[in-house]
Amino acid sequence: MSLPDDALWPILAAIVTVMVLSLLRPRELLVLPAWVLPAGEVILIFAVAANRPRRLSRRAGLLRGLAMGIVAVLVADALLATGLLVTALIEGGQATNSATELLTAGGIVWLTNVVAFALLYWLVDGGGELARARGGSGPVDLAFPQQLNPELAPRGWRPRFIDYLYLGLTTSMAFSPTDVMPFAPWAKAAMGLQSSISLAVLGLVVARAVNVLS
């Protein structure tokens, strides 16, 4: 049984963005060897692309499991990179020598956080894209406005990757839920962790940059 697909290009563009950011990250903020994340992201691209057209099959479950494992590594890497950035701010380091280098490093870590969590939300919410496409009527993990007010949305509406990317962006900017409400415990934990990472990066990096400039 084939089911309608989410647009592929925004997902691939997001993965490529994370790949580029991982290559641009200062060496002292690397958690793993420089080649590990790009290699994992290439595998993620193939896992997502190979699942098109998606079918109700064992292969679809294996590919989703592989994608979830790689995205979990990306999220963990974003968390650890934030810790390294905070350490560099406290102890000093090459990435904090100038306001330009500091803002660049902070921006790379912050954007990686946004995209990595967007991929996580997209993969996990409601059992994944395949389960959402089947139109399950069970409890939702993340409640979008169109789900809370179905009369405002087209019939059969379901969140696409761009909706999860917007969720990742607003959570990192507002440090809290905006229009999407987390219902499941994992969703609350993920959004809380993302907000904490973003608050640490934006708060400490901006404060240090202002100090350097003055």
From TrEMBL:
It comes from the Bacteria. Keywords: Membrane, Transmembrane, Transmembrane helix. The keyword Transmembrane applies. The keyword Transmembrane helix applies. The chain crosses the membrane at residues 7-24, 30-50, 62-90, 102-124, 164-184, 190-210. This is DUF1345 domain-containing protein. It comes from Nocardioides iriomotensis.
